[in-house]
Amino acid sequence: MATKKFKCKVCGYVHEGDKAPDVCPICAAPASEFEEIKPEKKGLDRDSNVYTVVYAAVMVVLVAVLLAFTSQSLRSYQQKNEENDKRQQILRSINIVVSSNEAEAKYNDLIKEAFLVNENGEKVEGDAFAADVVKAASEHKYPVFVANVDGQTKYIMALHGAGLWGPLWGYISVDGDKNTVYGADFSHQGETPGLGAEIAKPAFSGEFKGKKLFMDGTFKSIAVVKPGKSVAGQDYVDGISGGTITSKGVDAMLFNSLSGYVKFLTSQN
User: Fold this and answer.
1) Which domains does the chain have, with CATH numbers?
2) Which of the residues 65, 124, 175, 236 has an alpha carbon 20 to 30 A from that of 46?
3) What is the pLDDT of residues 25-43, one digit of tens each?
4) Within 13 A of 175's CA, how many CA atoms are on the CB side?
């Protein structure tokens, strides 16, 4: 059985056999004028629906694998950034402002102790830094960070609440008397720039310094009121002009969050 095909370059005659004929039977051209016809390699029709589906499926899988690999590779960096952001917030509540690169070292230098307390002010098991504040509060556990600032003890407590467009959170610190506010820091997710978002600015958080959480031995928290208003028998700060709902959110956040710390704050430990 013939295994190869040879074509005469002079007349186009096609010969089948193991080799080209000595002479073309049509035009008498010699064997040197023949060339072997190579069989065409069949491939996938790029215009077919099958090719399109297979190509799309392969690309989706490749992209998914690449994204998963990238996400996994960057996760450790993302987590470190998140942790440093939390450290920066905690430090801002004791009036220390540092860059992300400096946060870990400064935090380790100033924060001498971190623990969770229950509603009775007793220490309970758990990681105060890693704790999800909202989840911990639902379990009646509250993070406490103890700082040493210029030889003075400061107690830092975590806050969480709701604003106009999303969650609010922050930290507030008190002096060794567990009553006088030393500093505060507030953050938000999605509050209106120039209005409610102003709670994240030092101009607002700075108003809390020196305010009292207790009046005549009774927990009062600190009220956030409309500018020009006041509250009898309770320390207060001016809210954000044009950010009434966010200001009310901060007011409620302070009272609700700090209520869980009352027995800790009134304890002698």
Assistant:
1) 4-36 (2.20.28.10), 111-266 (no CATH)
2) 65
3) 999 999 999 999 987 766 6
4) 13
